[in-house]
Amino acid sequence: MTDARPDAALTDELLALALEAARRAGALLRDGRPDDLAVAATKSSPVDVVTEMDIAAEKLITGYLAEHRPDDGFLGEEGASSPGGSGIRWVIDPLDGTVNYLYGLPTWSVSIAAERDGERLVGVVEIPMRRETFRAVLGGGAFVNDRPVRCRPAPPLERALVSTGFNYVTAVRTHQAEIAARLVPLLRDIRRGGSAAIDLCDVAAGRLDGYYERGLHPWDLAAGDLIAREAGALTSGRPGTPPGWDLTVAATPGVFEPLLALLEEYGAWHD
């Protein structure tokens, strides 16, 4: 966590907008889910789906934000993309955990981050089925439902609970399973929740000691990465690189270092 908040008036405005947009989208997804929810399209493979509700939620979020800040840019999972002219860009995952949502499982979220010139200033992750809203402002700490959160004190690696995720492309997923199989004997256990944003928030809240995944897009991690870091977690990609497609790792200090070293040794950063 940094020592001072940048441009408090700006970040206060961005946070308020992100909270309201996430709240509205979360309510739409929770209350508007049709019983006959259908797959609208597929992404990377036939099992990587987009539902009609993903699309509706992204339209709601971008419409609300554009109404209040028409000069801002957007990067959204379901196609929202514009550079804007203000220097602020919103990075949006309207429904992180789409397959969980499709099946009626509760582990899904709405993720909204605001960044300026590539630096994340604000992150919000709304988890409607938990009645939880995680938020963070750069330099301002991390909160869930207005309660400050901090990552857990580090246990020995063999007592660390770590989460991961799997790609929807079969060959990639198979390699990821091999990495997980090598890690399992060295950890307390591995979890697989299905929402990267929630996993990152759970590291922030001390519910996980660590999390790693290959194949994340900017919208998957933008808000959750900021929340985890503001809660005291360490995050990175491969050693010396930021979190991204090749690898994303977040963990409490003390677990982060040996976990990252093992992931590098095992080749978790490639297919």
What does this structure look like?
The protein is of the alpha+beta class and 271 residues long. The protein has helices at residues 8-32, 52-68, 98-103, 170-183, 196-204, 218-230, 256-266; strands at residues 39-42, 49-51, 73-76, 81-82, 88-96, 109-116, 119-127, 132-137, 142-144, 147-148, 161-164, 189-191, 210-213, 234-236, 248-251. The strands form three sheets. An eight-stranded mixed beta sheet has the order 4-3-5-6-7-8-9-10, sandwiched between helices. A five-stranded mixed beta sheet has the order 12-11-13-15-14, with helices on both faces. The chain has a two-stranded antiparallel ribbon with strand order 1-2. Helix 1 packs antiparallel against helix 2. The protein is globular. The two termini are 33 Å apart.
Concise summary:
It is built from seven helices and 15 strands. The chain has 271 residues and is α+β, with helices and mostly antiparallel strands.
What attributes does this structure have?
7 helices; five-stranded mixed β-sheet; globular; eight-stranded mixed β-sheet; 35% helix; alpha+beta; 271 residues
Rg over CA atoms: 18 Å
N/C terminus separation: 33 Å
Number of strands: 15
Strand content: 25-35%
Question: Overall pLDDT, averaged?
Answer: 92
The helix fraction, in percent, is 25-40%
Question: What about the largest sheet?
Answer: 8 strands, mixed
Query: Spans of 5+ residues with little confidence (pLDDT < 50)?
Result: none
Shape: globular
How many individual helices? 7
Order of helices and strands: HEEHEEEHEEEEEEHEHEHEEH
Determine the structural class based on helices, strands and strand pairing: alpha+beta
What's the arrangement of strands in the largest beta sheet?
Answer: 4-3-5-6-7-8-9-10
* Oligomeric category: single chain
